[in-house]
Design goal:
Blueprint: H1 2-38, H2 41-59, H3 62-66, H4 71-86, H5 95-123, H6 129-157, H7 160-179, H8 197-213, H9 215-235, H10 238-245, H11 250-274, H12 280-299, H13 304-332, H14 338-366, H15 369-396
Helix pairs in contact: 1-2, 1-6, 1-7, 2-5, 2-14, 4-5, 4-7, 5-14, 6-11, 6-13, 9-12, 9-14, 9-15, 11-13, 12-13, 12-15, 14-15
C-alpha cells in the first residue's frame, strides 16, 4: 500500500534528480567553455544574463499554456528539446551562436520549472506537500553532489564537450521517467491548446486581481526572490572568483562545488528532520538569512579552505530556505492559477535579476572580482534581514500570510 502510494512521487523525484544532475554538468561545462573561449569574466556573466532574459520573455505567456495543458507531456517535450539543443553546442565555435542556443535552452527551462512545480502540486495531497518539498531538497542535494563530481571526473578523463553529451543523456532519461507518471491537468486545462492574445491578457488581469487581494504574500514573495536573485548574480562571478582570486584549476573548481553539494546534502537531511516542527515562514526566513551569511564568509575568502567553508555553510541552509519557500507558495496560490502566477511573478523577479547580473558583470571590469562579490553578499544579507523583519511584522499584525 505504501509502495503504491509513493510510486509516482518516486518516479517524479527520480526524473527531477537525474535532470538536475545533468543541469549541473551543463552549467559547469558551459561556464568553463565560454571562459576558455574568451578569457573574460564578463562573457561568463553573459550566460547568467541570458537566463533571466529568457524567463522575462516566456513569463508573459508560459503560465497561460501551463494552466491550460497537460503538464506531463509539456515536461517531456521540453526535456527532449533541451537535449537536442545541447547536443549541437560542442560543434560550435562562435560565442554568439552558443549564446543563442543557450537562450533557447533557458527558454525551455523557464517553461519547464513552473510546469513541473504545477504538476508536483497536482500530484500530492496538501498534507504531504511540506514533507515532499523537504524530500525534493534532498534529491536536489544529491544532484548537487553527483553533478559536479561527475563533471569533475569528465573534465579530468575527457573533455568539456563529452560532459555536454552526458548531459543530453540525463535529459532523455528524465523524459522517459516522466512518461511513466499519470497524466494530471489543472482544472482550467482544455482539450486543445489554442491560446489567443485575449486569453493571455485576461490572465494578466486575473493575476493582477489576485495580487491586490494577496498583497502581503506578494511582498514576501518578491523580497525572498530579491535575495535569491542575488545568489544568481554572485554565482555569475563564481568561475572568475575561483580562477582570479583563488587560482584554482578546473578540477579544483569542480571539487569546490562538490563540497557545496555535500553541504546541500547534509542541509537537506537537517531540513527533513525539522520540517514537521517548523512552519514554512520560519524555514524560509531562517534559511535565507543563514545562506546570506555563508555568502558573506565565502566572499572574504582568499584560500581554497576558506571558500570551501563558505560554500558548505551557504549550501547547508539552501534546502531549508527553498523548502520553506515552495511550501509557502503552495499554501498561498490556487493550483489552477499556479502556472500563470508563478510565470508572471518570475518575469518581474528575473527582470531585476538581469539588471543586477549585468551591473555586477560591468562592475567586475572596473573593480576587483572579490570587491564585487563582497558587495553583493553584504547586500544579500541586508535583504535577508529585511525579509525576516517583514514576515515578523505581518505575522504580528495577524495579516493573512500562509
Amino acid at each position: 500500500m505504501i509502495l503504491s502510494k509513493w510510486k509516482f512521487p518516486v518516479y517524479y523525484l527520480s526524473a527531477v534528480g537525474i535532470a538536475n544532475m545533468g543541469q549541473w554538468i551543463y552549467l559547469l561545462a558551459i561556464n568553463l567553455m565560454v571562459f576558455e573561449m574568451t578569457g573574460s569574466a564578463f562573457a561568463v556573466a553573459g550566460l547568467y544574463m541570458i537566463k533571466p532574459f529568457a524567463r522575462m520573455f516566456v513569463g508573459l505567456w508560459a503560465g497561460s499554456v501551463i494552466d491550460r495543458s497537460s503538464t506531463k507531456y509539456l515536461m517531456i517535450f521540453l526535456d527532449v528539446i533541451r537535449a537536442l539543443l545541447i547536443v549541437s553546442i560542442p560543434f560550435l565555435d562562435s560565442i554568439w551562436v552558443i549564446y543563442t542556443l543557450v537562450l533557447f535552452i533557458q527558454m525551455a527551462g523557464a517553461v519547464f520549472e513552473p510546469a513541473s512545480f504545477t504538476y508536483m502540486t497536482l500530484l500530492l495531497p496538501e498534507h504531504n506537500r511540506k514533507r515532499f518539498n523537504a524530500l525534493l531538497s534532498f534529491v536536489h542535494s544529491g544532484a548537487f553532489i553527483m553533478g559536479p563530481a561527475l563533471a569533475g571526473i569528465l573534465f579530468m578523463v575527457g573533455t568539456l564537450e563529452m560532459a555536454l553529451f552526458v548531459n543530453v543523456g540525463t535529459f532523455l532519461l528524465s523524459a522517459g521517467l516522466t512518461y511513466l507518471l499519470p497524466n494530471l491537468v489543472p482544472s482550467s486545462a482544455t482539450v486543445t491548446i489554442k491560446i489567443t492574445f485575449n486569453d493571455i491578457r485576461s490572465d494578466w488581469h486575473l493575476v493582477w486581481s489576485f495580487s491586490k487581494i494577496a498583497f502581503p504574500f506578494v511582498i514576501v514573495y518578491m523580497i525572498f526572490q530579491g535575495a535569491m536573485l542575488l545568489t544568481a548574480a554572485l554565482d555569475s562571478m563564481e568561475v572568475a572568483f575561483s580562477k582570479e582570486v583563488l587560482h584554482l584549476s578546473d578540477a579544483a573548481y569542480g571539487s569546490l562545488v562538490s563540497i557545496a553539494g555535500i553541504g546541500f546534502l547534509v542541509g537537506a537531511i537537517f531540513t527533513n528532520g525539522v520540517v514537521r516542527n517548523a512552519s514554512a515562514k520560519q524555514m524560509m526566513v531562517s534559511g535565507t538569512t543563514l545562506v546570506a551569511c555563508g555568502y558573506v564568509f565565502y566572499s572574504f575568502s582568499t584560500t581554497y579552505m576558506m571558500a570551501s567553508i563558505g560554500f558548505f555553510i551557504l549550501a547547508f541552509f539552501l534546502p531549508l530556505a527553498n523548502t520553506g519557500f515552495m511550501t509557502f507558495i503552495q499554501e498561498n496560490i490556487p493550483i489552477d492559477m499556479m502556472g500563470r502566477i508563478s510565470s508572471l511573478y518570475g518575469m518581474v523577479a528575473n527582470t531585476i535579476q538581469l539588471m543586477v547580473v549585468l551591473f555586477m558583470g560591468l562592475a567586475a571590469q572596473v573593480f576587483s572580482v572579490q570587491e564585487v562579490v563582497i558587495s553583493g553578499s553584504v547586500v544579500m544579507l541586508i535583504v535577508a534581514i529585511f525579509l525576516s523583519v517583514t514576515v515578523s511584522r505581518l505575522t504580528t499584525s495577524k495579516i493573512a500570510l500562509g
